[in-house]
Amino acid sequence: MESNVVENRLKEAKLIAVIRSKDKQQACQQIESLIDKGIRAIEVTYTTPGASAIIESYRNREDVLIGAGTVITAQQAGEAAEAGAQFIVSPGFSTDLAEHLSFMKTHYIPGVLTPSEIMKALTCGFTTLKLFPSGVFGIPFMKNLAGPFPQVTFIPTGGIHPSEVPEWLKAGAGAVGVGSQLESCSKEDLQAVFQV
């Protein structure tokens, strides 16, 4: 899938469900439940046992984008791409990993927090960046960074409650990554997010 197509589908999804489970079975149950609730973008973290196999089992689903998260090594990136991940996300920025991923067709979203990291990512050609951990710093932090970096699309992730997602989207986020708190959300709760 082309990088710009993935980018547009992530923006349409608005919310990226970050799956961090103790085993493959639990992860798949969580994913099925989230898809039933209307989630259209799933990020399976590489701290979850069997992450590649989970990604592979969802790679042909038309109704959901499946990606790999917490990818911190070239080996993980290779496994994720081979498994069919449509996007790969890192918690931080590594020039080596960015270079390795530039040879793959998979859409890569590196993580940043500081202006220096954003400048490095821009120099390497990345304009969609995971802002992590966002919940700790809040919406004003993202808006302050957007001032000098208007060309960047931020995907804030980390410590954000689903009920806060609409505010982040209204503040300019391209999409928002949300983790474990999604499980307690009803389908109705999530509809408010999708209507922003």
Number of strands: 9
| Distance between the first and last residues' Cα | 26 Å
Helix content: 40-55%
Structural class based on helices, strands and sheet pairing: alpha/beta
Task: List the uncertain runs.
Answer: none
Could you state the order of secondary-structure elements as H and E? HEHEHEHEHEEHEHHEHEH
Cα-based radius of gyration, to the nearest Å? 15 Å
* Subunit organisation of the chains: single chain
Shape: globular
Strand content: 15-25%
Major sheet strand order: 5-4-3-2-1-9
User: What is the mean pLDDT?
Assistant: 94
* H/I helix tally: 10
The biggest beta sheet is recorded as: 6 strands, parallel
Keywords: Carbohydrate metabolism, Lyase
Subunit structure: Homotrimer.
InterPro entries: Aldlse_KDPG_KHG, Aldolase_TIM, KDPG/KHG_AS_2
Enzyme class: lyase
Characterise this structure:
The chain is an alpha/beta fold. Helices cover 43% and strands 17% of the residues. The chain contains ten helices and nine strands. It has helices at 3-13, 24-36, 51-58, 74-83, 95-101, 115-123, 134-137, 139-146, 165-170, 187-194; strands spanning 15-19, 41-45, 65-69, 87-89, 107-109, 111-112, 128-131, 153-156, 176-178. Strands 5-4-3-2-1-9 form a six-stranded parallel β-sheet, sandwiched between helices. Helix 3 links the parallel strand 2 and strand 3. It is globular and about 40 Å long. The chain starts with a helix and ends with a helix. Pfam families: Aldolase. GO terms for molecular function: (R,S)-4-hydroxy-2-oxoglutarate aldolase activity; 2-dehydro-3-deoxy-phosphogluconate aldolase activity. InterPro entries: Aldlse_KDPG_KHG, Aldolase_TIM, KDPG/KHG_AS_2.
